[in-house]
Design goal:
Layout (H helix, E strand, L loop, with lengths): L2 H12 L3 H9 L4 E2 L14 E9 L3 E2 L5 E2 L9 H16 L5 E5 L7 H16 L3 E6 L5 H7 L13 H19 L5 E4 L6 H9 L4 E2 L7 E2 L7 E2 L9 E2 L16 E2 L4 E4 L2 E4 L7 H12 L6 E8 L12 H13 L5 E3 L2 H5 L1
Parallel strand pairs: 2-5, 2-15, 2-16, 5-6, 6-7, 7-8, 8-12
Antiparallel strand pairs: 1-13, 3-4, 9-10, 11-12, 13-14
Helix pairs in contact: 3-4, 5-6, 6-7
The structure holds zinc ion.
């Protein structure tokens, strides 16, 4: 393990202790977000929190190291236990969430497959939304359906035709196994592009939530993504020409971006992995976002971050528990799936 990675894990563990959380709370005044239009309206529309969970293989190990689907696509516990642990937290607060599903779950068989299907059916029954989440390089069900191996995560490594049949195949897998039609989408590692926008429109999607305003990463590998030119935090229609252009508005796909913020020069997402900064980010948006229309505050986490290898709950579930309890105290805060929030 590299030194920066070890330091990151050390910092993560410290900021999840009581002292670390207290420190973050004291520093929460330094959380800010560019591009929030100041509210002038007296009667503010509701502030909607949309919890989104990218649902994949993997787990959190004892040292808080994340085992992701890419390194272990058959760690199916990330689906069945991950979903179960998130469901139990969400039902405690009666919160409906959007689960962006990697169709890799359909490559499971036997008992794993039954456990996964059971959890997915419960999600639907309980009023959560299931969207499509695309990781071509670690989705064994997708690769088997298309009879092809894929080596990159990001859309930019595929041509328009390939992207179209990748997205169509993902949608068909969900339909085949769950008898529902997904209309919301997030590209794995946020790595959407304009060809993906065209494919989403062709395949009947209505919402994308891949955008992470002001953030880019992995510039030199197959997980590259770039939203650094975007500072918009309000929904817009995605461009079919330049996916980072928020002014074109020339597709039918509504982008509902993930909430992002700045903290001492770091650009971060509204993610319980950031410990008490998630609540600080919420406070910043709640106070400052213009609300002549309802504002949608999108929080991101992962199914795998809800479970250890033995199925027990993680620190991330604890942070989200505290966050939901905080957000529930505000009278004009609602919780909604992305699909319902759009309407
Ligand atoms: Zn993912």
């Amino acid at each position: 393990m590299s030194l920066p990675y070890q330091l990151k894990i050390k910092a993560y563990r410290f900021f999840n202790t009581s002292l670390g959380k207290l420190m973050l709370k004291l520093l929460s005044g330094f959380v800010h977000a560019r591009g929030l239009k100041k509210s002038k309206v007296e009667n503010k529309a509701p502030f909607i929190v949309s919890v989104t969970i990218d649902t994949e293989s993997g787990f959190v190990d004892k040292n808080d190291h994340r085992v992701w689907q890419k390194s272990n696509p058959s760690a199916y516990i990330g689906f069945y236990k991950g979903i179960e642990n998130w469901r139990s937290l969400l039902s405690k607060y009666n919160v409906k969430a959007t689960f962006f599903l990697s169709t890799n779950c359909f490559s499971a068989d036997g008992e794993d497959y039954s456990k996964i299907i059971k959890q997915l059916r419960l999600l639907i029954k309980e009023g959560h939304e299931i969207g499509l989440h695309m990781h071509p390089d670690s989705d064994l069900a997708l690769q088997s359906l298309l009879g092809k191996r894929f080596n990159a995560t990001s859309a930019k490594f595929y041509n328009e035709k390939e992207i179209n049949y990748i997205i169509a195949a993902g949608k068909n897998l969900i339909k085949k196994h769950l008898k529902i039609s997904a209309t919301s989408f997030r590209w794995g590692n946020w790595a959407l592009n304009e060809d993906a926008v065209k494919a989403l429109q062709k395949n009947g999607f209505r919402i994308d939530s891949s955008a992470t305003p002001e953030i880019k990463g992995h510039q030199n590998d197959s997980m590259a993504y770039d939203w650094s030119k975007v500072i918009e935090h309000y929904p817009w229609r995605l461009s079919r020409v330049d996916y980072q252009d928020t002014k074109h508005q020339n597709s039918k796909i509504v982008e509902i971006p993930i909430a992002t913020f700045n903290f001492f020069g770091l650009k971060l997402r509204a993610d319980p992995a950031n410990s008490a900064l998630l609540a600080a980010c919420f406070d910043c948006y709640y106070k400052n976002a213009e609300r002549s229309k309802p504002f949608i505050f999108v929080v991101i986490s992962h199914s795998i971050e809800g479970t250890h290898q033995d199925g027990s709950k993680t620190k991330v579930i604890g942070v989200m528990d505290e966050f939901l309890s905080h957000a529930k105290k505000f009278r004009d805060v609602r919780f909604s799936t992305l699909d319902k929030a759009r309407k």
